[in-house]
Design goal:
20% of the residues lie in helices and 40% in strands. The protein is α+β, with helices and mostly antiparallel strands and 249 residues long. The protein folds into two domains: 2-111, Rossmann fold; 125-234, Tumour Suppressor Smad4, CATH 2.60.200. The strands form two sheets. Strands 1, 2, 3, 4, 5, 6, 8, 9, 13 and 16 form a ten-stranded mixed β-sheet that branches. One of its GO terms (molecular function) is kinase activity.
């Protein structure tokens, strides 16, 4: 039994034709289900708990990265499989999972390749792709063993579970099934006339603490914003997701 959770952005008129087409495809594939529309007034955890009680086995987030962030934090620890259908802008996570369109998503859900995926945990919330530090000046303490300090305000710092699109494939990092997260630090090494080149350093870890000379913002999966200091740790095999054959892990 499927539960499709529609982001509030889908109420916009420009998405209606594509939404109707998606619903027809799901019905034709035999994977239609109950539809529930998200809103600030709806208790998502309570909704999912009630739907699981009546037999829902698969929850599909229909929307963007922010939608997926909300749904993941509502289903962690529950016996359901998570799927995603990307709509609108800001769908980095769907692309990272090899899902590049609504049609891709419906076929992927139908094919139903299920993988256990690690999550990142920042304080008490979970993320699947990455957490981005807006201020590049930070001190990162690794598992109480050593620390890395970034002194350049122009540094880019990301805690990654999935491989970022701008990082070449084939590296032995960014595997969401290895029980580790990866800290990606990019420091400006050379400025040209048209672009700046960045030197990349990657540090695998299971737990870090991040602080800085001043309070910095950390955005998880393009959604919730946290303020330093924070603790981030790997949460191995935390969720079951429907993934595409075209994924890069």
């Amino acid at each position: 039994m499927y539960l499709y959770l529609y982001d509030s952005l889908l109420s916009e008129k420009k998405y209606q034709r594509q939404l109707i087409k998606m619903e027809m495809q799901l019905t034709d594939l035999g994977i239609g289900g109950k539809i529930s529309r998200l809103s600030p007034l709806k208790n998502l955890k309570q909704l999912i708990e009630e739907e699981v009680r009546v037999g829902v086995k698969t929850v599909v987030a229909v929307g963007n990265d922010k939608t997926l962030f909300q749904v993941i934090n509502a289903i962690v620890g529950r016996p359901v499989v998570l799927g995603i259908v990307p709509f609108g802008p800001n769908n980095t996570i769907a692309h990272d999972l090899g899902i590049n369109s609504v049609e891709d998503a419906t076929k992927t859900i139908s094919t139903r390749i299920i993988q256990k995926i690690d999550l990142g945990k920042i304080n008490n919330d979970y993320f699947v792709s990455q957490a981005t530090i807006s201020d590049g000046q930070a001190v990162i303490e690794f598992d109480d063993k050593f620390a890395v300090s970034t002194e350049h305000a122009g540094s880019k710092i990301n805690v990654c579970n999935l491989r970022p699109a701008h990082v070449a494939a084939g590296q032995n990092h960014f595997n969401p099934q290895d029980g580790y997260l990866d800290l990606l630090v990019e420091t400006a090494s050379r400025k040209g006339m048209f672009r700046t080149e960045f030197a990349k350093s990657i540090f695998p870890f299971k737990r870090i603490f991040i602080r800085g000379p001043k309070t910095a913002s950390i955005t998880a999966d393009g959604g919730k914003i946290f303020k330093t200091p924070v603790k981030i740790e790997a949460a191995p095999q935390k969720i079951k997701m429907i993934v595409s054959k075209k994924r890069d892990f």
